Amino acid sequence: MITSTSNQRVKELLQLQKKSKARNQAGVFLAEGTRMVMEAPQKRVRKVYVSESYMKKHEKELEEKGFVPEILSDTVFDYVSDTKTPQGILAVIRQMDYTLEEILKQKSPHILVLDNLQDPGNAGTIFRTAEAAGVTGILMSRDCVDIYNPKTIRSTMGAIYRMPFLYLDDVMAGIETVKEHGVRVYAAHLDGKNAYDQEDYQKGTAFLIGNEGNGLRKEVAECADAWVRIPMSGQVESLNAAVAATVLMFEVSRQRRVQ
Amino acid sequence: MITSTSNQRVKELLQLQKKSKARNQAGVFLAEGTRMVMEAPQKRVRKVYVSESYMKKHEKELEEKGFVPEILSDTVFDYVSDTKTPQGILAVIRQMDYTLEEILKQKSPHILVLDNLQDPGNAGTIFRTAEAAGVTGILMSRDCVDIYNPKTIRSTMGAIYRMPFLYLDDVMAGIETVKEHGVRVYAAHLDGKNAYDQEDYQKGTAFLIGNEGNGLRKEVAECADAWVRIPMSGQVESLNAAVAATVLMFEVSRQRRVQ
After folding, report:
1. N or C of chain B: less Cβ packing under 10 Å?
2. Which of B108, B235, B238, B259 would best serve as a mutation to test chain A binding (most A beta carbons within 10 A)?
């Protein structure tokens, strides 16, 4: 059992919690909590850490799952945990490695392209909602929030394991590739001509979603085949990015559903 | 100019930032930032506070608006501010005082009933989104998050000033009153028979939205005329409360919109 916060492994875990660079160099991320660890694709799980108390209570489940966890004293676990009330279990998981080709080869793709999205909670909520709405893949500009940051991972509620996604070094080139695959690309934009529900989303569809404060970059919005707007009442100037994405994704889901 | 953090007014402001009880006893709340102060209904503004630097830069605008602000040294302003990078202006504003009758007397009401919603950010996002979706009023059970807390106020993006709302001591009695006014009440529920988009929302409509983790309380869900479900793909078990509310509100908006 590790009982000291100056242990080398503990230091490494802390780096993986806090530093995007450390995660990317090691090609891993951390998932915390029973559900997030148990739902993880087993072959991606590199290492499981538990607190002493967690081990006492859950030894059997861990064994059944084939996990041989490293045990940390409760104090040390609290020290490496990213949450206020740690559940006592976390895992080091190998990062996902989808390709654009995989994401595009599906039938009737339903894609989100996130451009410079910054809020970790928003990103996580978008992943979770996207899974529910039947989205087939999420593309992100390189300057989006790090999806592997602990807060985002938590707020995906497990969708991180199931939703294909990819960071694009060149988002505009990526959008061109999406279009070349016959997917129609819509920008969610205040100046859209048609309301979002006036379009037909039966065939391959992608939506461009912009930054929380500034919306879509002009040059990115101009890559779209069409702009659509979400009609708004009152004096509201814009919607939260996750909310706007929700409205669009669930309209696709609604149109594609066999009633 | 107030230059000491032990000044009585400064102490009062800090209480109003931090304590729901202090806000309710005084019948006021705080709004921070240029936009939130300038958008406030002028007759509700009790007092405006600015930092010394803000005053220097914006003396004219404040005068034009008829505000006679109390000036705090920059250090003292930072001390009372709830934000990491204070803009330098905040106002003490009289709490809203809508009645259920006012909210129900509108034509074709479109109402949200929030039951035990706990997350300040969720509540604020729901207010902002509700205004955009044409919601006519929001009812909240007494045990919901305090809508007047600074984080919620900020995330409403001004909708707090425009969206009629009311806390209900007895949420079930409140729902009965809503029904007596001819409004059809739907519970968003995983066990709903119909998908949410199979209902007709042209007439008075209310949605019951539950707690983030536990959903609707059974006894509250049972007050509904009908349960509707939001069809979900993948392994998602539930949606974020603000996301679920968004899907429902924008379906009403979509159905009621003249294309």
Report:
1. C
2. B235
How many structural domains compose chain A?
2
Q: Which residues pair with A205 in a beta bridge?
A: A110, A184
- Is B3 inside a domain boundary? no
- Answer yes or no: do B166 and B134 share one domain: yes
Q: Give the H/E segment covering residue A102.
A: helix A100-104
In a domain, A1, yes or no: no
List Cα–Cα distances, B137 to A43, B203, B248, in angstroms.
Answer: 50, 15, 15
For B134, the closest of A132, A233, A259 (CB atoms) is A233
Q: Is A134 left (phi over 0), alpha (psi -120 to 50) or beta?
A: left
- The C-alpha atoms of residue B252 and residue B249 are separated, in whole angstroms, by 5
The answer to the question of residue B2 being in a domain is no
Q: Over its length of 259 residues, how does chain A's per-residue pLDDT go in tens digits?
A: 999 999 999 999 999 999 999 999 999 999 999 999 999 999 999 999 999 999 999 999 999 999 999 999 999 999 999 999 999 999 999 999 999 999 999 889 999 999 999 999 999 999 999 999 999 999 999 999 999 999 999 999 999 999 999 999 999 999 999 999 999 999 999 999 999 999 999 999 999 999 988 999 999 999 999 999 999 999 999 999 999 999 999 999 999 997 5
In a domain, residue B1? The reply is: no
Query: What is the domain-level CATH number for residue B29?
Result: 3.30.1330.30
Tell whether A214 and A233 lie within a shared domain. yes
Interface confidence (ipTM) of the complex: 0.93
